[in-house]
Amino acid sequence: MEPKFKQEIQQMMYIAGETQEVSVQTTKLIEEIIRDQVVHMLRIANDLAARRGSRVFSNNDLIFQVRHDKARVERLRIFLTWKAIRRTVKDSDEKEGFVDEADLEENVVAPADDAPAGGKTKLPTVTLPWDAASYFSEQVTEASQEDLVEITSNEAALEKLRRNDERTRDMTVAEYATWSEYRHASLTYRKAKRFREWCGLGVIAENKPNDDVMDILGFLTSEMVQKLTAQALKVQKQEALRLGEETAMTGEDRGSKTGLGGLFAEPEGLRKPVDKFSTSLLAVADDT
Q1: 70 near 130, Cβ under 8 Å?
Q2: CA gyration radius for the chain?
Q3: What is one GO cellular-component annotation here (predicted)?
């Protein structure tokens, strides 16, 4: 059976550094691993909601499960903050007219020229119930532009930028153009019905209709695929070093023994893609 998200998963794998053509079997295995993780998260979220006496789970029931991974929580917070900003701008566009997105990005980090002296433009912020700020009766409900700059410049965001820089450093112009296009790959964006059927959302557990649950799940699944791929590539590289090879070529045909290549021999130095049956992906799958 063909994977339901074959194209999306292959694009996410490309973002993680797998630029080779991946087999359908490998894509299917990764999809099954991700689905198991999502189903597990939905069941826990449903249990957490039931403890509160609620029939539906919320955003916090998902984020609570990864609360110990501070870097991931911060990435989620940044993601939801930008979504709230876009929603706010969209609402203001409908009232005041069109605002170009490029202008918005410039104004996010620098106050407008006509802004009042000493004034601060207020922006939406994302708070979590287990944050220290939630212990106080009075809450700061909005963030300033300076706060947003600090949020988007924290260690989690910078680490993500460093990883992306390492992955794209040796890419050609064509590969980087493809990489930039594939960055928008998602299992949930404009695929809500297919995703719900795929993971059992609505059967295993139900979410609040107005929450950002679908976007959070889309964000987390994308990170899962990329992390799984990155770890598999790391193990594959370790295998090659352990075998005393400079590439991840497997097998011992006559060409590799004698150093002679035939007409249909693979180009020298070509890395094989991550494969379902290779120990690289199986080892990572066991640890997931």
Answers
A1: no
A2: 23
A3: SAGA complex
Position 109 scores a pLDDT of: 44
What per-residue string of b and e applies to 100-115 under the rule 16 or more CB within 10 Å gives b? eeeeeeebbeebeeee
Residue 238 placed within a domain: yes
Among residues 35, 33, 31, 3, the alpha carbon closest in space to that of 286 is found at 33
CA 158 – CA 124 distance, rounded (Å): 22
Kindly report, residue by residue over 67-101, the tens digit of the pLDDT: 998 888 888 988 888 888 888 777 666 555 544 44
The total number of structural domains in the chain stands at 1
In a domain, 253, yes or no: no
Look up residue 179 and give its two tokens. Answer: 């990489």
Contact status, residue 142 vs residue 122, Cβ threshold 8 Å: yes
Q: Is residue 83 part of a domain?
A: yes
Q: What confidence tens digit (pLDDT) does each residue in 166-193 have? A: 888 888 898 889 999 999 999 999 999 9
pTM over 0.70: yes
